[in-house]
Amino acid sequence: MTATVTAAFIHHAAAFLLVATLMVELVVLKNALTVDSARSVLRMDRVYGIAALVLLVVGFVRVFHTEKGMAYYFSSGPFLVKLALFILVGLLSISPTIRFLGWRKALREGRVPEFDDGARRKVRTIIHAELTLLFIIMLMAVMMARGVWYLG
Question: Quick check: 115 and 3 in contact, CB under 8 A?
Answer without folding.
Answer: no
